[in-house]
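Figure S4 source data
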Amino acid sequence: MLREKYPHTDKIKEVLKDKSNLVQQHGLNYVSPTWQRFADQYADTEEMIYEWLNDLDARRIIDEVLATLSETERHQIEQDLKPIDNTVLAKTFEINECVWGDKVETENSYNRQKHWYNYRMNDHVFESESGRFTKRH
């Protein structure tokens, strides 16, 4: 049983209706620890692009939920996220391309400021996808 630290309202459940069962059932109480685990264990060690993309989905879902919350609720959760995001930033580097590719980037209106995590990678994934991405200088 997950600890219910964050709100999981009907509004949030509606946003998550097309996600996995665990995400639907627990919302931020599932994806926030998932993002923490990624930051702690995989941000600098993951080797496969498929797993990398899967991990980034957790952060995108967090953003989707944040958009439904009041400013007060959002601010508190953003404070919790800051050290996790900082860990990911420290273990990765910026790339010129969106990790999802141009088509998905355009379809979802991803941008480097708001969706920064979709423009970062570690050395292992970068090397496994040789020639597909370029480091941003």
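Figure S5 source data
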Amino acid sequence: MVANNIETKKDRCDTRPAAKVAFNPAALLILAISFCTCLLAQTHTTVRHYKERVDDTPPEIAQAETAIQKNDFAAAETLLKKALDKDPDNKQSWTYQAWFDLGFVLNRLNRTDESIAAYRKSVGAKPDVFESNLNLGLMLDRANDPDAEQFLLAATTLKPTAHVEEGQARAWLALAHLLENKKPNEALAAYVKAEDLTPKDPEPHLSAGQLLERQKEFSDAEAEYKQALALDPHSTDAAVGLTNIYMKSNRLSDAEPLLRRLASAHPSDAIIHLQLGRVLAAENKKDDATTELQIALKLSPTDADAQREIADLYASAGKNDLAEAAYRPLLATHANDPELHRSLGQALLREKKFPEAQQEFLTALRLKRDWPDIYVDLAFAANENKNYELTVRALNGRALLNTEMPPVCFFLRASAYDHLNDKKNAALDYHHFLDVAGGKYPDQEWQATHRLIAIEPKKH
């Protein structure tokens, strides 16, 4: 008798072998734009199988398997341990199966370390079983154990009990995911193996595309995404990946029609509307972009990416009151995000809400003290608030990070010193400003020249 159960790496729920299980791949972020994506795959699942029994197989194993089918894992554990007590030396032909079933049960009971130990016993008793090696490799991968590679690689050389090509492809995919960060070329080769074994499955092409994109191999990544999309025309992940390539290659005219077609076919897919909004914003079609981002938010009201995109879009369009309204709820849930505090501060600055802007910049600076631009923002807000001491401190802090300050910063600091009646330092900064301005700031250059006449009358 042969049977299969699939147990997800993420939520450990039983499904049938033909079902696919959603999981989130690590760091998809895409150019300067980040967004969340979900893949359908079986690569991070453990499998369960039964072998033909021999006459001397203890009856407790059959009873345990019945209990497993009923999700009575506590009873199954007791029965399996009772069976294994009959062979303490692990020499009987059936022990690998009992250890395998026990590994499955312990995993379902969320006892990872014990599950791994049981799977190790199963592989030790019979090293040439595909399912044992695969499950042990997956469990070790989940535990960040370097031994995972050894067992997943072994699984790729063995024959599954059933669904041979699908099982072998799953092993190659699991190995590829494991190798992505440390051995990317070997990971790509493993994805090719999976593609060859399951030519109708888009998942290996999708994963290969994502890896190639991270390696900035955009042409090859594009080819993989197109293959995935050809196999599954409704794949949001493939479409988003492909449009990311188009955006990185400044081929927005290719990205927009693809996303519009997908948005029309899947009007309830928030990710597609979000990506379309990004493309339209990059094309400077701000009104259309706003519409798409609003649709994305309506479909997924808690999507922080969509909230941030639309807030940034309002800000870039000069709709500062709307930008402020969009940034504030984001900060309620992301209070330690310095970029958000700065963005809100800039919107407030443009709204001439100078005290509030100053406070946001101070908060951003406390969260990220090595950020040169925030010192400049703070100096401008403090200057508008006539807080000249803070203006000077902010620009002095900026100078400590990088002596090459923008020319206007020297004028701003000179003006602050001037207001504080520190004529010596004011004169130094006015002179420095005039030396580096190069005619790019005619109004400030005129003011600096005339203030120097007032400060240093003997030199004029």
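The radius of gyration is 31 Å. DSSP finds 23 helices and seven strands in the chain.
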